[in-house]
């Protein structure tokens, strides 16, 4: 069951998108449950105790009291990993949400049924992928697993690799970053330093000699890695339809 949340202060819009998405889900035999919210405050309160009870979030940007961009930023800060799709009447806000990593911005009243179907199916696919992909490692002779989506970065020191996941949790095992790079090829991880390998979706800001992650961690960028990091990052944002208006360090 995929939990789909809709947040809009217009009751007609809520009904419209719920009916539209239900039709798409039924067409493709997808099991979904819809929850509707009429304000950003209501949504934030509901998710305050269980930020990951939402799998897909359709969020209106122009909410009355607090706009959808700010709502999404607060949700991300509390660990919400939902696939976010913004609903808007204007493209003016697309550059304000770089660190939120939305799937797409959909213009109200001008997006075709085919486009809605394409985006919703992509979101469903990403949810399923996140649920099934696990990182396997061995520690103390025991094979252990962590959901790949929860891992922000790996750090190595004297052959001890530390996994940083779920914001501030860590696990350790023996290995090499070269081994990890090979294991995580095509999984949106990139080597940024001889001691660090990070997940591209966690990047929120580039500075001259480091990267700020959504976890609040600053990760150094090695000089020899900068070109490859830049190439991988822009391939990633192109693939995920993200927007980036900043520069790659200053």
UniProtKB/TrEMBL annotation:
Gene3D superfamilies: 3.40.50.2300, LytTr DNA-binding domain
Domain Response regulatory: 3-123
Record domain HTH LytTR-type: where: 145-235
Listed InterPro entries: CheY-like_superfamily, LytR-like, LytTR_DNA-bd_dom, Sig_transdc_resp-reg_receiver
Modified residues (4-aspartylphosphate): 60
Pfam families referenced in this protein's UniProt entry, alphabetically: LytTR, Response_reg
GO MF: DNA binding; phosphorelay response regulator activity
Keywords annotated in UniProt: DNA-binding, Phosphoprotein
SUPFAM superfamilies referenced in this protein's UniProt entry, alphabetically: CheY-like
UniProt cross-references to PROSITE patterns, sorted A to Z: HTH_LYTTR (PS50930), RESPONSE_REGULATORY (PS50110)
The organism's place on the tree of life at top rank: Bacteria
Record function comment: May play the central regulatory role in sporulation. It may be an element of the effector pathway responsible for the activation of sporulation genes in response to nutritional stress. Spo0A may act in concert with spo0H (a sigma factor) to control the expression of some genes that are critical to the sporulation process.
UniProt-recorded name of the protein: Stage 0 sporulation protein A homolog
Organism: Lachnotalea glycerini
């Amino acid at each position: 069951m995929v939990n789909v949340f809709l947040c809009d202060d217009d009751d007609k819009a809520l009904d419209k998108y719920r009916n539209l998405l239900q039709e798409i889900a039924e067409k493709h035999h997808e099991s979904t449950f819809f929850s509707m919210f009429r304000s950003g405050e209501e949504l934030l309160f509901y998710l305050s105790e269980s930020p990951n009870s939402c799998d897909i979030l359709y969020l209106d940007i122009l909410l009355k009291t607090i706009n959808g961009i700010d709502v999404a930023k607060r949700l991300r800060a509390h660990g919400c990993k939902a696939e976010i799709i913004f609903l808007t009447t204007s493209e003016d806000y697309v550059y304000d949400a770089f660190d939120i990593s939305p799937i797409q911005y959909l213009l109200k009243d001008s997006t075709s049924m085919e486009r809605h179907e394409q985006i919703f199916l992509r979101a469903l696919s990403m949810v399923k992928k996140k649920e099934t992909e696990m990182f396997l490692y061995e520690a103390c002779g025991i094979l252990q697993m962590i959901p790949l989506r929860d891992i922000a970065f790996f750090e190595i020191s004297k052959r001890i690799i530390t996994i940083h996941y779920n914001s501030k949790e860590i696990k350790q095992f023996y290995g090499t970053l070269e081994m990890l790079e090979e294991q995580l090829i095509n999984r949106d991880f990139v080597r940024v330093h001889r001691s660090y390998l990070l997940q591209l979706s966690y990047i929120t800001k580039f500075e001259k000699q480091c990267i700020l992650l959504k976890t609040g961690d600053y990760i150094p960028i090695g000089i020899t890695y900068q070109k490859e990091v830049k190439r991988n990052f822009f391939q990633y944002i192109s693939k995920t339809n993200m927007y980036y208006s900043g520069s790659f360090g200053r």
